[in-house]
Structure formats: C-alpha cells, structure tokens
Amino acid sequence: MWTADQLREQLRDLDGRGYRAYRALGPIYAFDGFHLRVDHVQGDPYADPTRLSALVAPADARLPPDALASRTARVAAADYLNRRLLEELTTRSRDRGSGRSGELSILRPGQEILHRTSLFVHEDGSIEARFRAGLPARGRTVLGKEAAILLCDELPDAIRAGLLADRSTDPLLRHVQAAEDAQALRAQLPAHGLVAFVADGSILPRRSGVDDRPLEGAGIVPFVSPDSLRVTLSTPHSGAITGMGVREGITLFAGGGFHGKSTLLRAIERGIYDHIPGDGRERVVSRGDVLKVRAEGGRSVAGTDISSFIDNLPGGEDTVRFTSANASGSTSQAAAIAEGLEVGCRCLLMDEDTSASNLLVRDARMQALVAAGDEPITPFIDHVAELRRRGISVLLVIGGAGDYFDVADTVIVMRRYQPRDATAEAKRIAAELPSRRTEASVRWREPRPRVPIPASIDPARGNREVEVRVYGTHRMTFGTQEVDLAAVEQLVEGAQAAAIGRTLAWARGRFLDGARTLSSATELIMKALEEGGLDRIDERRSGEYAAFRGLELAAVLNRLRGLRTL
Fold it and tell me: Is 332 a member of any domain?
C-alpha cells in the first residue's frame, strides 16, 4: 500500500507525459483517516472521469449506534453521508484543463432515501464512498501538479469534511429517524386495510415538473384529513401520527382543475419510497405493490394478454398474445395494466388526464350509438368490481367521468388542496342521475403468463457485450435499442434506470432463461439482489446504481422494442 505523500510524488513525476501514464496509479493509498482506492482510470480527459473509492474504518467513521441498528438505518445514514459528500465535492469541482479535468462528483440523490452503490454504511460501522475525479490534462498531456493538488489536497479535504469531520449527529439521526418512521407507517397499512396513508400537515405540492422539492410560500396549504377518513398510526420516533387512510377498494379523487387531485395521486405514487426530512412527504406512505399506469401511444408491446379489455378486433388480431410496435393509447394502457398485474401489482393508480378515455368508460349515449358487437373495447369501469373481488385496489383521479360514482367505494373531493369525503354525496348523485349505461357481459380473464426469449434481450453494441446508457429517468439505450421510460413514472432517479438496464443484461440467461415466466424470473432476480446487493450486476466496482422494485424492472423489460415472448 502506498502513502499519500508517495501519490503526490508519483503524480508530479507524471507531469508532461501522455494521458495513459495515469494508468500507473493505484491500487490503494493510505491517507489520514481513510484509504483511497483507484478503481478505474479514465483513458482520455474527455471520457467518463476516473472511478475512485474512499474506505473509512469504523474507528474513523465514528457513526452513532442508532445509525447502524438496522438495514433501514444504514441505508438512511448512507443517503445522508452521500448528500454531505456531494456538497463538499461540488464546492471543490472546477475546470483544471481539457475535457472533464478537475471534475469531482458522486451520484446526486433526489428527494427519496434510496440504497445506492455510491455510498455504503456497513454493519461494522465502516464507510465506503464511490465517486469520480477528472484527472487533469492539457489536451492529452498530464498536468501532474494539478493532479497532485486535486487528489492529495482538494479531494481529501472533501472526504474529511463530508465523512469524517466532527459534527453534530442530530441531522444524521433525523435522517435515520425519518426513514424508520416511514417504514413503520408503511408496515401498518395492511392491518388497517389501507393502501396508502397521508399524514396531517404534509406538504404535497412540488416547485415544478422538473423540481421535486416542496413548494414554498405563504399560500401553501398543509394537508388535513377529513374526519371520516382519519386514522392514527404509530411511529418509533414521532409517536402517534394522524392522517388520511386510503382504504383498499375503489377510490376516486375528484374535484375541479388545479385543486390538487393529481398532486395527491403523485404523492401516493411516490409513497413507496422514504423521503428526506423537510420534503413534506416524509409521512406519506404507500404499499410496495402500488403501480401507476397510463396511456402510452407508440410504445411496443410483446405478446401481452389484453383480451379482457380489447377483443374481436376487425382484422382478427390476436389480443391474447397482443404484439405491436406502435400501440394506441387504449391498447398501451391495457397492456400496462395487464403487465403490472402479471408481476404482482395489487393496487393500480390512474389519472384521467393521462389515460385513454375510451378505455376508462363508454357512456350510455356512445353505447346507444355504437353497438356492443362493433366495439372491441370493454372499458375499465366494467372490470373494477371484479378486480376488487380479486383483491386489486384502484385509485383513480377523475374529473369528467361521473359514471365511476356507481362503482366507487370512496370518493374524495379536493378543493384548494384540501380533501373532503364526498362518498355519500356521490352515491346520492348516482341514484338521482342514473348513467343508464349497461355493463358489458365480458368477464375478467387473468393475463396469460409470458416467457421472455433471452436472445431478444440483447445488451450488445458493436464490440461491447453490454452497453447501457441512461438519460435521466426518461430514456435509456440498451444495446442498440432506444427505450422510452417516460411512462414508468415511479422511477425517480436515473441511477435506478441504469441499475435496471445492467440487471437485465446480467439476468439474461441466468433468470431470463427462456423457461421461466416473466413473473417468476422477476421474483428470483429481486431475491438475488436482496441477498447479494447491486454489485452483482456489474463486474466493475460502480457507484452509479440505485435500488428499484421488480415492478419497474418488468416495466422496462416490457418496453424493449426487441423483446419477444412465448
């Protein structure tokens, strides 16, 4: 093992040489308070920066016992330290030459507390941080003196300030406690017959569509539950918490435009994650099996059974094994529903604004105009009662389809971001103003299980066996394929999409073997990652991945345009 002083001399000796001379670095250097490991040296100043790791022993980390007490605590502590190190690296990152010279970075978290491979807090109290540094160069000539300042002065200062500095443990423990409280709330949902819980005092509006931080200002309205829907749950750190319980069954969120119904649904869809203190949604939690689905015209579909919704197409197309390179709004949403149920979704979230109207409902007048025999679509409204009997809940934002009053268990009206239990009123209106539509006679059929064909899941590009790149949460390249992820709305970080892409490449032939169904393969993949961690999916030591659910794994797989199934 080399010392920090030896690294400084080594870098100075490289000054003026060709850029590939940096490859002589490593593998480990001992600094005061941590070891610096060189995981991979970039081959060019314009390439992805060099991957480095800082390894901190328990005695130097000095983490409080409460931050190590459980996996939830360790993930939350790692999330907090990741954010602290990001701040310190960002303040020291600056241009030091050509390309990305002088750049210091680590995975940037969003508002959610996630397990990420960028920073680990291990059970023994040690810390491992994985980050990147752009090694300085002018053109492709090493700037050794600048590199010595970067790696021997600036970077160690950032690591010590972010991970080792004498600090109050209060912010760290608040982070841990927020996660543990959220986990406790989420664990109580099934026993109370709930799919979600929205605590009184929560702040749901966000700053913008591209800024997920809480909206601020004098006009912000904290959430207050209707008395009839209020429940009390317990937490280990905050005691009893009151809020609105969203019950199993069929729940409608109604109200005028811009009054907060979609905002409420979005908070619930993100309730599958724990949130950082100050987010406003720390105590908004949902069951782990809720899935947001929407229309997605133009997507590909590979052998999905949508026959419960769409059948008897004029051209005789098979909807039990529906395949399309350019699905319509209605067929794409029908496919998303079937695909979600296929891999374990037990609660569907939908918003009328992003749904195919002809899939949601066909009113009495349209039924009178177009005979049932001429309409291949059986709308969702005709299936919700059967889905409820099968234990599938539905949360639906509705603004124009009052026919759903007939099938709803709970109707919540939002007015100026405040909820009101309008169930009795909606049922009275439904009785006084009957819709006169007739329910279709077609019954629900369980989606046919599918078996993905491994050869169709091809991550290769050129001479690379695996080429996966992500562009935020909305787009991925998988091998030679462009994958549109915009409709996979419960992905919250690009690092999740990157992890899913690598997981699909890793699982091809192992679990996605041409014999297992998509459902069983997904279950086995997630179990393997739970036991072995995300490091299993990449032979490199990468800090670029974040945890995800099996529902999103399947959703991305289903959007590969090359996918074929049996």
Answer: no
In a domain, 86, yes or no: yes
**Is residue 223 a contact partner of residue 199, using CB atoms and an 8 Å limit?**
yes
Quote the longest CA-to-CA distance of the chain: 87
∠ Cα 550 486 110 (to 5°) = 70
Residue 526 lies in a domain: yes
Count CA atoms within 13 Å of residue 4 on its CB side: 17
Q: What are the two backbone dihedrals, phi and then psi, of residue 95, each rounded to the nearest 5 degrees?
A: -65, 125
Q: Has residue 241 been placed in a domain?
A: no
Residue 167 binned pLDDT confidence (cut-offs 50, 70, 90):
low
- 315, pLDDT greater than 80: no
Instruction: Take residue 377 and report the two structure tokens written for it.
Output: 């679509």
CA–CA separation, 370 and 378 (whole Å): 13
CA–CA separation, 401 vs 396, rounded Å?
11
Percentage helix, strand, coil, to 5, in the chain? 35, 25, 40
Instruction: Copy the structure tokens of residue 216.
Output: 């601020």
Share of the chain above pLDDT 90, in %: 88
Which residues constitute the domain of residue 138? 2-167
**Structural domains of the chain, count:** 2
With beta carbons less than 8 A apart as the criterion, state whether 312 and 343 touch: no
Under 8 Å CB-to-CB from 330, ≥6 apart: which residues?
A: 295, 309, 310, 356, 358, 359, 377
Q: Assess contact for 154 and 24: CB atoms under 8 A.
A: no
- Beta carbons of 484 and 421 less than 8 angstroms apart: no
Is the whole model's pTM more than 0.90, yes or no? yes
Q: Which of 167, 192, 222 is the last residue of a domain?
A: 167
Reported as a pLDDT band with limits 50, 70 and 90, residue 26 is: confident
CA 485: distance to chain centroid? 11
Q: Give the three-state DSSP class for 107.
A: coil
Q: Of 167, 185, 215, at which residue does a domain stop?
A: 167
- Cα dihedral 184, 187, 193, 196 in deg (nearest 10): 70
Q: State the DSSP code for 106.
A: -
Helices (H), 361-467: 364-369, 384-389, 423-432
